[in-house]
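thread from #wetlab-drylab

HS: before we spend reagent money on co-crystallization trials with magnesium ion, can we at least see a predicted complex? here's what I'd submit
DV: go for it
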Amino acid sequence: MRKEIIFTGFGGQGIILMGVIIARMMEHFPDLQVTQAQSYGPASRGGACRTDVVISDQQINYPKSSRPDVMIFMSEEARKRLLSEADPEKTLVIYDNTLIKEIPTAYKKTFAVPATGEAEKEFKNRMVANIYMLGATIELINPGSFDVLKKIVASSVPKKFEELNIKALEAGYEYYRTHKPAESPAASR
Amino acid sequence: MRKEIIFTGFGGQGIILMGVIIARMMEHFPDLQVTQAQSYGPASRGGACRTDVVISDQQINYPKSSRPDVMIFMSEEARKRLLSEADPEKTLVIYDNTLIKEIPTAYKKTFAVPATGEAEKEFKNRMVANIYMLGATIELINPGSFDVLKKIVASSVPKKFEELNIKALEAGYEYYRTHKPAESPAASR
Amino acid sequence: MNPLGEKYLRKDFLPFLFCPGCGDGMIVQAFLQAVDDLGCVDDLALTAGIGCSAWIGVYMHVDILKVLHGRAIPAAIGIKATNPSRKVVTFTGDGDCLAIGGNHLLHAARRNIDMTVVMVNNQIYAMTGGQVAPSTAVGSKTQTTPYGNLERQLNGCKVAIAAGATMVSRWSTAHPKQLIKTFKKALNHKGFSFIEIMSQCPVQTGRYLLGSGSPQFNFQWLKDHCMKEEDPSKWAEIEAQGNIPVGDFLQVEQPEFMAEVARMNQRVKEAQAKGGDR
Amino acid sequence: MNPLGEKYLRKDFLPFLFCPGCGDGMIVQAFLQAVDDLGCVDDLALTAGIGCSAWIGVYMHVDILKVLHGRAIPAAIGIKATNPSRKVVTFTGDGDCLAIGGNHLLHAARRNIDMTVVMVNNQIYAMTGGQVAPSTAVGSKTQTTPYGNLERQLNGCKVAIAAGATMVSRWSTAHPKQLIKTFKKALNHKGFSFIEIMSQCPVQTGRYLLGSGSPQFNFQWLKDHCMKEEDPSKWAEIEAQGNIPVGDFLQVEQPEFMAEVARMNQRVKEAQAKGGDR
Amino acid sequence: MKGAERIEIDRRYCKGCMLCKYICPCDVYDLGQERSDLDYLMPHVARIENCKVCGLCEQHCPDMVLTVVAKKKGKEKE
Amino acid sequence: MKGAERIEIDRRYCKGCMLCKYICPCDVYDLGQERSDLDYLMPHVARIENCKVCGLCEQHCPDMVLTVVAKKKGKEKE
Amino acid sequence: MKKGRIKVMLGNEACVEAALLAGCRFYGGYPITPATEILEIMSRRLPLVDGLCLQMEDEIAALVAVVGASWGGTKAMTATSGPGFCLMQEAIGLAVAVEAPCVIVNVQRGGPASGQSTSTAQGDFYQARYGSNGDYSLIVLCPSTAQEMFDHTIKAFNLSERFRIPVIILSDEVVGHIREKVFIPDADQLTFVERKVPTVPMEEFVIFKPEENGVPLMPTFNTGYKSPVISQAKSLNGNRGNAKEAVENIRRIVSKIEDHMDEFAEVQVYGDEKAETAFVTFGSVCRAARSAVDMGKEKGLAIRSVEVKTVWPFPDHLVRRALAGAKRIVVAEMNLGMLQREIERVIRQPEIKIELFSKIGGIYPQPQEFLRFLEEKR
Amino acid sequence: MKKGRIKVMLGNEACVEAALLAGCRFYGGYPITPATEILEIMSRRLPLVDGLCLQMEDEIAALVAVVGASWGGTKAMTATSGPGFCLMQEAIGLAVAVEAPCVIVNVQRGGPASGQSTSTAQGDFYQARYGSNGDYSLIVLCPSTAQEMFDHTIKAFNLSERFRIPVIILSDEVVGHIREKVFIPDADQLTFVERKVPTVPMEEFVIFKPEENGVPLMPTFNTGYKSPVISQAKSLNGNRGNAKEAVENIRRIVSKIEDHMDEFAEVQVYGDEKAETAFVTFGSVCRAARSAVDMGKEKGLAIRSVEVKTVWPFPDHLVRRALAGAKRIVVAEMNLGMLQREIERVIRQPEIKIELFSKIGGIYPQPQEFLRFLEEKR
Ligand SMILES: Cc1ncc(C[n+]2csc(CCOP(=O)(O)OP(=O)(O)O)c2C)c(N)n1
Ligand SMILES: Cc1ncc(C[n+]2csc(CCOP(=O)(O)OP(=O)(O)O)c2C)c(N)n1
Ligand code: SF4
Ligand code: SF4
Ligand code: SF4
Ligand code: SF4
Ligand code: SF4
Ligand code: SF4
Ligand SMILES: [Mg+2]
Ligand SMILES: [Mg+2]
């Protein structure tokens, strides 16, 4: 089993953190290996930003994604530049539909999550869009690990923002439960 | 014809300048090649100091002395360290006998010049000992070139010391004429 | 693009790589305004080092040589030396100028070579993600001083004065009008001028030092903390309150290096023509 | 060897590589006298850069790390950082300290780390044969300013003060008594101290700058030109006459870096023991 | 009194920092809903009639994307 | 009054700079004729009776090769 | 099996973890992408163990302070990337000359000059060995995983203490910035080497006289030996040496390492050790090559991948052995052909062309590309 | 025969003489033995031709100022030795990256670190090529006589202008400090290359688009082109490049040189071109080897001496040709075996052992020793 997930958006959205959180979760799964690799532009905000997470039950050599199972897009520019890495048939394309208008229909598996919109609307804070997104996608990444995720999120954010983040996480999870894509690719492979 | 001359003494005596002057003289001898190479210790005064001059009618490849024809010693320390480079049979060993007590008798060809003593006594200036020495040895280095030497010396020292140096040079030459070693090795090779 | 931008920016290099609300863009604008007022755009030659602020000059459509971290000043000297009529301006960050590049500042100032160093002080290493800078206040928590900074600040203006700079000013991005005026003064100053600009970096300084990443908050912080005070003897007091003196601190006339070089060359050549070799 | 030499010099390293009459040897002696008076020889750790003056410490029988040109100060910081109880002293030349090493001086001073920098100012690059130094007077002819130096002097004491040094003095080899006293003060000062020593270099400075290679002449030159004046506001006047102000210029108390580090480590460890991670 | 004919915001490069809104002494701007090409929410010119064409917003815009176009003279009284 | 019993000059290392001679307020030294091991002409202690043991020569000797040995107490009157 | 714990860590973090375990108590650094995390994490961790992390004014000061700390008697390190590594070259020579044990990490990014600060590269391969002036030698280790960042850091400290030299960890952006599981053995499961200090009376001690293993005892400044340590070529007592002493000094500081390479040189082979087709790699590229070997196997292609772990002194012997019998040799690296030159030098069979599969510009090679290279260039 | 005059000159002086003839009008330097005379003589000479000689605060500033002057539109140079050469490495990468023509002289002395400041050495052989970070290329010339100091300096300026690169003259103490007769041709007897500047309207000009010869036109700051010049990997218009543009940029700045090596690469053979015994040398050692060849001839020994004049990019092809048929190859150099490694790489015949005759510690080899080596090691 090797699963490749790409998170992408622009700097400042906390894209890398999403990958870090997934990676750190794996400390709780002794039989799984994980790598998380990142690349970003030189400025601290703006600019495309991306992290590749690979989860496997074998030693992971090549640590980047070459045929991603899941791609999560959190900005229009990232979609423009990186969607071509997705396999239209196989890759589950998850996108923040607050920021991304549409995904061409060629891509068979898609899941829209209004993470930024909800973060702005419900939590008055764009900064939690990434955590919302994590909540909405964890079942598609590593099914059944929401509780571990919650623990890791709590320990990954400053104390004073802990509650806010956990709420966003739970809201995302709730969104998933109520909107989840017809076929769960996580289950299918 | 290849002639190798080594000048040696301590820093501050103007040893290097002696080599430079001989080298510059050669601009006036179109058929002769010359190299002058130097080596010195890190401090500006004291420390052994040495320059190798090679004069040849051929292109000079190896620019250092490996079997010197003439060696000129201007300090006791230099004698201690470098006399072994002289060939007891062939090398003409010239030394400042103000500073150097003696040369072992194994060395067959020697010439003592009291350069420092004369400089101090006659000219009240140790700094001209080197020029005195040049005057006393030019015939042994490149016979018949005293006039060229005089010209080069004049242009190599600060204007205000020109007269002093020329006098020292002439005094040295005079010393040579009156004390010259029995057999002139310059003639013999 | 606003009209100033239309006139002077390199369109194919946009957008600025600066984060939203970064003071660096405001400095681009203020500088271009000064240049526009003086009509001297063709006379400019810029240099820069490495850092966010080092990109300021890259967006302006003028000659710019952007070199290594800390080395913008010697690059400027090389340009000035070979183009004495150009107005040479260096854009540099507080880290670029005061940490790795501190020595070049000393020596350019003592030479009183005709150039302007614009040091953008955002009180941090921004480009690399929020490490302590020589300009970071004691006690501040940064990515490399997690328990509070123990090192006292290096005051660029004081150092420039001690080294011999002949014009020294400090303003902030919250003082665009004064800044434009000072830029103009420096561009016309014959000698070494040093302009320090306090600038907001919402992302690193804001986040780590001031507790808010909001551009507005960071901009307001500068407005609140920069106090005009041109008398050095009163600085200590202002600084003790956590505030920052700004103003035009110094401008004197002294022999300028390139002019002295020209005079020397003239003299030496004349002496040589007369036959003397020294 | 005189008794002080017998007691403290490395016999197997003699003679000093200094030229006859060089001031550097006099500094060895004055420093050893101070050390002897304080009885602190076992506490010393020295560093040095490259240059004639950088050899001063090598002949003393104490720990010494002689590093690269200009880098004596960071070496001292590394030693102090790991041996806070040692008295760390750096011997450096005017070129070593103010040219290539200028930046390290700024930063050690601003840190107020407990160490002493002894800068031997012979107004020239001596070791390499008489090139201009940042301390060479305007107009001077050296091997690299054959037509007269155009660059204004960098004043090490002023720079050290601007950067935050907490003790600053200047004396000369013609002031052995005052020098010994100042050495003792510096060795006991808690913080960064900077001592500039005007020193004769008959061979380079004498020959090229002052017109005589005689040790006596060069020594007398210092006696004649160094004037005691501890009030900075009067320096300009003295300097305008071609003279050099000497004296104990500054000594203040400020938090010392290594002490602050120790306090911080204590605090952080206690916090951690209580379970907090910051 | 001066007034603005229009305020242009270059949507290619606006980064939504809202310094324009913050600096405006006349409360001309609101936080808008539209996103610039760089994915940032742009300011919305909500009350252009308040604008005194003081130029502060233009001068402070860090991305030089904002232009306040004054009413032509003579038009002012319309 | 103090006096010097002897003045030692370490011939291994003396460089003949004559700063001792120059600094001596009591004209104790002359330029000598003897050379040190480093080939320099050493100072000659010509008038030791003048010496006040002020220590200046010792303190100023750049090679630390000069030692002024004071007469032992009690000997002074001899 | 060793006792210990498993943690998901950044490669750069694993480096810090190991350094602290190995006893590093001084860090002198300067921020630079992609090495900055090492400085940042050190600044958090060192105060907790009574160490000191100093952000210096530049990389020169950083490494010189490390050398000072090393002579101060402390294990010390620094980390940087290309531009800063340039600035450290003179002080690397210093550390060699004064035989100061220390560890220098270079997390490589794209060059030349400022290059591509956030992208990976392996262009400092030769610089790590030859960037300083004059004759010298040192050890360079190339990790390819966060675990190796950890293991090599322990090894680097041990070798630096054993040989009294700077040891360089030549990592790259991929390895520095990868996050993966790292096994951290308990301290008692690891071996730590400490520099040997003299015990004889000060008068009898000759500071640069080597012991049997070529390395002199180190009278650090906390031992009371009053040591003279200069950066020049020296005689045994530490004074400036004459020509003969200089020759001996230089030969010794080189041969103390090169004569003992079997103590540390390491070359690994992944895949089919007898395969006629061989990749040769170092650093992060090893990982992609391994995947390529696995993919090849699936397709029925026998490939071996030779991984040079200690690239300097170059392990001629081990590399020759690992490549014995190979008919086709492809050197895969993220530069324009550096390791390739060493392989050309070592494999002196004119019939074997040493091919180069080179990726630059920060583009980490994909396993598929290795296989495509094998097909297309055939 | 060319017209000109003959003067007895120091090698370092010949370098200055040639630089001024070639049009050098800016010198940024810092004193260091044994290169200092270049700075000193420049400071006397440049003012007379309205040039500027600046003694900067350190070597970093010196070379960066040279790069500035080069972009300012002036031919510029600097000179240093080992420790200063270390400090210049970052700026060498800068000069490469911003394609600034300039000349850098390294008059080698003993290393590592402060080493032996007044002694000769050839230990910076690899540093001259690989001392800076990342992938790059440049040209390194090695003179062996004062005359070659002159000739190579002219050549260095010409190549730097032709290729828009830093050219390094890797001299050594023996060559820098030798005084001998130098033939100085009249200016009209020499060819001088000048950088090509653009002439198209500013709007049409694309700053880093190469001409046919791989080199872009250079819109120096005196041409009015308002040029953006950054030290990062760049796109054709001068802005930061993406990965693909970075690849192209880096490949171009390397291949513009390496694809045109036949324009400048130079290897000479002295002695019997067919001799089975061959010395391989560079720099000052060539001279001693020549004497050895001559001595050998007297004794009836046929020897050729292969002299590598342009050591970087290493002229594989020319060296192979010059060594064709040689059965015994002895590399003679004043380091512990650097050129030797290149010869091992280039001569891939396992039956030929590449022997090393190495002199270090500042001891210049004597011709007799070469012959003794041949006898003893047989
Ligand atoms: C030699 C070298 N060291 C370190 C770096 C990494 N670096 C790039 S920018 C920077 C700091 C920039 O800080 P500052 O000058 O204050 O500029 P800012 O980004 O804050 O505007 C550093 C350390 C580098 N590029 N080169
Ligand atoms: C990096 C480097 N650059 C240059 C040198 C050459 N160098 C040795 S000493 C020195 C100047 C010394 O001058 P100063 O510090 O004033 O000491 P002094 O000899 O005058 O006492 C120089 C330039 C060097 N050793 N290293
Ligand atoms: S990190 Fe700070 S200084 Fe850099 S661009 Fe962003 S806001 Fe500006
Ligand atoms: S050159 Fe000058 S400073 Fe150096 S040892 Fe000689 S006199 Fe002293
Ligand atoms: S100030 Fe400029 S960039 Fe910021 S929101 Fe307003 S228009 Fe946009
Ligand atoms: S011009 Fe002045 S009043 Fe008008 S919108 Fe801008 S800031 Fe507000
Ligand atoms: S001062 Fe010292 S070195 Fe100089 S002459 Fe007198 S005894 Fe000799
Ligand atoms: S002790 Fe004083 S009086 Fe006696 S010789 Fe020395 S200087 Fe002269
Ligand atoms: Mg900053
Ligand atoms: Mg000096």
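DV: The CA atoms of residues 92 and 109 of chain A lie 5 Å apart.
HS: ok that's useful, forwarding to the group
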